[in-house]
Amino acid sequence: MNKHSHKSAYIVMTLVIIWLVLPLLATIIYSLFEDWTGIIPKGFTLANYESIFTNEDFLTSMYQTVLICIIPIFITVLIMLLALFVVTVYFPKIEKYVQILCMIPYTIQGIILSVSILILYANSESFFGNRMVMLLGAYCIIILPYIYNGIRNGMRAINMNMLLEAAEMLGESKIKAFFKVIVPNIISGITVSSLLAVSLLFGDYVIIRNLSSTDVNNMQQFLYQTMKRSSTEASAVFVVIMLITFLIAAIVLTIQSRSSSEKLKETGK
Amino acid sequence: MSYISFENINKQFGTNHVLKDINLEVEKGQLVTLLGPSGCGKSTLLRCLAGLEQVTSGKIFLDGQDITDIPPRRRGIGMVFQAYSLFPNLTVYQNVAYGLKIKKMSKLEIEQKVTQMLDIVGLSDKIKQYPAQLSGGQQQRVALARAMVTEPKVLLLDEPLSAIDALLRKNLQIEIRRIQKQLGITTIFVTHDQDEAMTLSDKIHLFHDGKIEQSATPEEIYAHPATKFAASFIGNYNLPVVAEFNKAFQCDFQNESIAIRPEIIVLSKEPVEKTEQTLVSQGVIKGYTPHGSLTRYNVDFDGLQLNADVLFNNNMAFDVDDRVYASIAKDQINCF
Q1: A167 chain-B contacts, CB cut-off 8 A
Q2: DSSP one-letter string for B63-96
Q3: What residues does CATH 1.10.3720.10 cover in chain A?
Q4: pLDDT in tens, chain B (336 residues)
């Protein structure tokens, strides 16, 4: 590549970064000042942040967001591990159908999913009629493809059947060998896909808005409510959400780069 | 009854009949080899003994006990796989100790046994390393130690050296034989390499198309192959068309096939007299291939091409287009 094309590539990249970062930067500045009607913002303040961090509703919504993110991920990871164990070991022929089933949620829009669940279960007096169960169920469906891919790719990378056979020959049962030998070897794949699922659920507004009862709020709902009250405070909420999302992304990238550098070390490259 | 006994074993994968009425016996303390080309059923039989495959029909006995329907973990059999199958997340020590932990042995006992076994395979200095940090040969030795440390009734080796380079392979062959003799462990070795089978085995069972073609000691199977397939698979037998051979060497074999080992064809530049025990013919050297300690000459006898081995003695005994006399001892020719 010559110097000229290098230069133009840098220009394009800088423009794209400005285009993406500028609104975020503006939001941060907006959340830190009392007034920004002129060119220069006036009255630096941290009051917006103080207000949201002392607001019990915000802390509750943050706590509830974490909870409704972790529970579906835990359930889905456990179900997918057991399902893929059974499929790989005992029914390898149905693997392709399981794959199709797990990929379907990619194509379902949140609004369609939540409305469908409401139509099916809203009037049900059974366990599934509970709003929280509906919400967690919907989240399990939404994150299914990510968790499936994370676990399946991990399993493919280690020749699971052969390791299970080796453990079996040493006197271990298949299921114990799976949790003692296979799971530790795919744990980084599970972690990465789980963190991706966290960021996905973190940003949900549509499903929780439709499915949850009024006493379950996530941060997106809190943001919506704050927007009605104060635009600067809403900016502060947005900045907090953005920072948490960045944190999740940073953890994912660190784990990914660590596992790939370990692989490079293993292969001696 | 022998220590291991296969009785009328059949194994089918759908319509593919992989093992056909296999009857095979292995004595205690022996190292036997299941030898044959890819897809002949030798690994399947091994996996049936391990319990990793269920037989379609037939019975397997180990030490007098019918183990046909016993799950693999309760058979007391150790196995080394072609791809090592070491647990990547565990160190060498943890890999070897894995089977002992399942047996719920005390920590002290585990430590003693693992250390002793790693000493035997020569990897005492690698106990803290992970499989990815070891070479192929070292990984295979860890796999061997892991399989043997639990003192299994039988040790199964499924082409364990096929992914290892030639020199290391030779060393490991000798090492496996040494350890097997030292521990007196009954061992079944699967390979498609006839040299490996010859080096290691007390007895070779030659497989072809899901059946046992011949069972014999390495010397016997090499000198007296029972069938044309055995002759073609073992050694580098010449398998000439009988009529062409009769014409070239002026003899009268009536058998369907004959097999001649390259080393029993004696080449000479001087005329050789035909006797009652020998066949003689004149031919022309068409080419040669050096094999280190010997040279394999391709000799043409009026259209019949045979290979003859001559020990290498600092220089080539013959050159291309040399006219040579070939003599073959009649009783060394195998007829089927």
Answers
A1: 87, 98
A2: TTEE-TTS-GGGTTEEEE-TT----TTS-HHHHH
A3: 56-268
A4: 789 999 999 999 999 999 999 999 999 999 999 999 998 999 999 999 999 999 999 999 999 999 999 999 999 999 999 888 999 989 999 999 999 999 999 999 999 999 999 988 889 999 999 999 998 889 989 999 999 899 899 999 999 888 778 887 888 888 889 888 988 999 999 999 988 999 899 999 999 999 999 999 999 999 899 999 999 888 789 999 999 999 988 888 888 899 999 999 999 988 888 888 899 999 999 999 988 888 999 999 988 999 999 988 777 778 899 999 999 999 899 988
Judged by CB atoms closer than 8 Å, whether chains meet at B146 and A184 is answered as no
Q: How far is B77 from chain A (nearest CA, A)?
A: 7
Nearest-by-CA chain B residue for A264: B132
Choices 1.10.3720.10, 3.20.20.140, 3.40.50.11930, 1.10.443.10: CATH for A56-268: 1.10.3720.10
Q: Is A201 exposed, middle or buried (0-12, 13-18, 19+ CB in 10 A)?
A: buried
Chain B from 198 to 227: CB within 8 A of any A CB: none
Write down the pTM of the prediction: 0.78
- Do the Cβ atoms of B21 and B211 come closer than 8 Å? yes
Amino acid, res. A51: S
C-alpha span between B156 and A12 (Å, rounded): 62
Q: By CA distance, what is A172's nearest residue in B? A: B73
What ipTM was predicted for this assembly? 0.82
How close, in Å, is residue A181 to chain B by CA atoms? 7
